[in-house]
Design the sequence.
């Protein structure tokens, strides 16, 4: 069975993803998604002040390389490179997840609900593996991830 990733994303970036402005999610660390048991469906947790699991997207392509090569791979213009270059300072390996098939859930799960019903739940600062019971509840409530 595939493991699903829960990604913590700041509200301003969630908004850009919803509006189709942000086409890639960049990460300093991310597990290998090719030839692994990691699902290509990523569940999104919108961080403070929203603090909810709000939806999901599929990874169309996972790029993993040095910063310069990564920027070339995603056809980033100079403004975009400058915007995220500080995020990748001193990193030899960087990741970009190409976003596709965005789904915003009708039934979202708040942090307070998750903590009440899933002992020890913590969304993590970057990513974490999603508990299968939470995954099953999201599917039950929304028809799919």
Sequence:
């Amino acid at each position: 069975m595939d493991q699903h990733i829960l990604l913590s994303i700041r509200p301003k970036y969630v908004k850009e993803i919803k509006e189709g402005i942000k086409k890639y999610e960049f990460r300093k660390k991310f597990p290998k998604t090719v030839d692994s048991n990691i699902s290509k469906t990523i569940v999104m947790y919108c961080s403070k002040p929203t603090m909810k699991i709000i939806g999901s997207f599929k990874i169309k392509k996972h790029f993993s390389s040095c910063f310069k090569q990564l920027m070339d791979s995603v056809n980033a213009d100079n403004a975009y490179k400058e915007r995220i270059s500080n995020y990748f300072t001193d990193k030899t390996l960087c990741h970009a997840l190409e976003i596709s098939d965005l789904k915003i859930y009708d039934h979202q799960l708040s942090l307070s609900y998750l903590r009440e019903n899933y002992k020890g739940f913590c969304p993590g600062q970057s990513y974490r593996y999603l508990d299968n019971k939470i995954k099953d509840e999201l599917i039950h409530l929304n028809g799919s991830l």
